[in-house]
UniProtKB/TrEMBL annotation:
MF (Gene Ontology): amino acid binding; ornithine carbamoyltransferase activity
Signal peptide start-end: none
Keywords noted in UniProt: Cytoplasm, Transferase
Protein name in the entry: Ornithine carbamoyltransferase
Binding positions (carbamoyl phosphate): 56-59, 107, 134-137, 274-275, 320
Gene behind the chain: argF
EC number annotated for this UniProt entry: 2.1.3.3
Uppermost EC category: transferase
Aspartate/ornithine carbamoyltransferase Asp/Orn-binding domain: residues covered: 156-330
Catalysed reactions, semicolon-separated: carbamoyl phosphate + L-ornithine = L-citrulline + phosphate + H(+)
Source organism of this protein record: Buchnera aphidicola
């Protein structure tokens, strides 16, 4: 019996360390099979609902291609295309979709919504992103880290997450570090540190296993000797412009640039970014923000550093597909013989 069968994925702490590692191993195999044209579609009779209250590129494409590769059918429910929480309660929506579909993906703002979907749906529910957690992104990140250091255990790898750590990536990175043993430094101004309760829990549990998780405002201390620097865009569409201005002012010293890389004392340090990135002025948003706030060469990451590391960054993005596929196969098959 597959112990991940019909299991939800609302956050990474829904799983054990062993289960996370098994998902990563399965993703490696599925990725290899796809590259070698040896993939076997195992989800031919499955139907999946993709609820997107918040728009997406990578998450939607990854879930759809993962499902199609495995022979499953999908229904895309975009922003404004359902009665979810407006004309029909989330509870009632979960009950009917759980009868019609074998699995439900939800991407939206309020984490409470996905918790209600999970509670009342008979089908497994997967978190494509909420304001609190982004587990499918971190699964892809762990696969990317493992691919770049295949001979190293996670517990021997040092990562610095730089920028706004008070967001879904920061929260999910804390949980990932606790589960697999990464040495994690969240490098950010105190105003951008994660919520105290989650941080304290992850840090104390990590200490019991002789692992290291810290928050620091000191960039030099945080990035010294790390194997990876990870950053994310500092602003999101839909936020008030006053919030942007305050956050950008706080985070300006935390831009990933040449000077920061020199502080690592590691000439082989690798850069991760979950995308999209405001590294140039080739988008309307990038052009307006960089000009307004006086950035000459990217915002959270400079254009030169982004381009030097684009191979691993776009591999990281592709790995969303393979880890999401592993999640679907794991939770939709009663017996997983892969």
């Amino acid at each position: 019996m597959n112990n991940l069968y019909k299991r939800d994925c609302l956050r990474l702490l829904d799983f054990t360390s062993l289960e996370i590692n098994n998902i990563i191993l399965l993703a490696e195999k599925l990725k290899k099979d796809k590259k070698n044209n040896k993939e076997i579609p195992l989800l031919k009779t499955k139907n999946i609902a993709l609820i997107f209250e918040k728009e997406s590129t990578r998450t939607r494409c990854s879930f759809e291609v993962a499902a199609f590769d495995q022979g499953a059918n999908v229904t895309y429910l975009g922003p404004g295309s359902t009665h979810l929480g407006v004309k029909e309660s989330i509870e009632d929506t979960a009950k009917i979709l759980g009868r019609l579909y074998d699995g439900i993906q939800y991407r939206g703002h309020d984490h409470k919504i996905i918790e209600i979907l999970s509670k009342y749906s008979k089908a497994p529910v997967w978190n494509g992103l909420t304001e609190k957690f982004h587990p499918t992104q971190l699964l892809a990140d762990l696969l990317t880290i493992k691919e770049n250091f295949p001979e190293k255990k996670f517990c021997n790898i040092k990562c610095a997450y730089v920028g706004d750590a008070h967001n879904n990536i920061g929260n999910s990175f804390l949980e990932a570090a606790l589960l697999v043993g990464l040495d994690l430094r969240l490098v950010a101004p105190k105003e951008c540190w994660p919520e105290k309760k989650l941080f304290k829990f992850c840090q104390e549990e990590a200490k019991k296993k002789k692992r290291n998780i810290i928050c620091t405002e000191n960039v030099a201390e945080g990035v010294k000797n790390v194997d990876f620097i990870y950053t994310d865009v500092w602003v999101s569409m839909g936020e008030r412009k006053e919030i942007w201005e305050k956050r950008i002012k706080l985070l300006r010293p935390y831009q990933v640039n040449r000077n920061m890389l020199n502080m690592t004392y590691n000439s082989q340090v690798k850069i991760l970014h979950c995308l999209p990135a405001l590294h140039d002025q080739k988008t309307d948003m990038g052009k307006s923000i960089l000009k307004k706030y006086g950035f000459q060469n990217g915002m959270e990451i400079t254009d030169d550093i982004f381009k030097e590391n684009q191979k691993i960054i776009f591999e990281q993005a592709e790995n969303r597909l393979h880890t999401i596929k592993a999640l679907l196969v794991s939770s939709l098959l009663k017996k997983n013989n892969l």
